[in-house]
Amino acid sequence: MSAYECFTVEIKDHIAHLQLSRPEALNSMNKAFWVELPQCVREIEAAAEARVIVISSTGKHFSAGMDLGVFSDSSALPMGGDPGRMGEALRRLVLDLQASLSSLEQVRIPVLAAVHGGCIGGALDMVCAADSRYCSADAYFTIKETELGMTADVGTLQRLPKLMPQGVVRELAYTGRKFSAQEAKALGFVNEVYESQQALLDGVMTIAAQIAANSPLAVSGCKEMLNYSRDHSVEDSLKYMATWQSGMFRPGDMMKSFQAKATKQAPEFEPLRPIKPLFE
């Protein structure tokens, strides 16, 4: 794996553990973060060694959200000059930031978020793009942007209404109030709440191991279909499923599963093919 400023990465037993690694800055999302996150997850995906990604963090909080230094950097924030050109440049910047977090959805393997402490502002946008979320009892979440005088713009307002009741999401967005681990669990935003940060990581790694033990082709197909069905009608999703299955379904992995059950051994599946640059 490449060296990153904002993350450490370890791949073991087909699980990629990606940790936010700037605890002294509360793992705030600086300029390097937005560039490195998609690079990192796509490097993991391309290598095809990992079958699931676990994102956790270090220090007191998961992440304090957008580093305020990004807003004060005139080279990063296109303010001033002709209003039309400024608006066009700002739109492209927001689209780039959105694309950085959308990489978690777009990679072909599941992404599990393990959250402790504060998950604030842009960090909430990020975990909304994960496949599943888990947290420790001390975790809390907030759409902080509202309190700061702006509208959240990189995914929370688009994804959270598909994960939680609409009325609750509106309340959280309009008020900017914190919601706790227990409330997040009751609303279905997180799958499970663990007593401590270590228990959280142990529990999520156990789930990741269960995912990694399955056929990577089957799991990748699940993610593709679930993402598609979220954004399309049932009828369109069923048709897409039939088309996908006609091209991707092969009996080899099923036979390996049956044989493994018969011999009471763990099946060994062929990895997905690595993703290489065009014409390499």
Automatic annotation (TrEMBL):
Pfam families xrefs: ECH_1
Domain of life: Bacteria
Annotated Gene3D superfamilies: 2-enoyl-CoA Hydratase, Chain A, domain 1, Lyase 2-enoyl-coa Hydratase, Chain A, domain 2
Family per record: Belongs to the enoyl-CoA hydratase/isomerase family.
Record protein name field: Crotonase/enoyl-CoA hydratase family protein
Organism in which the protein naturally occurs: Thalassolituus marinus
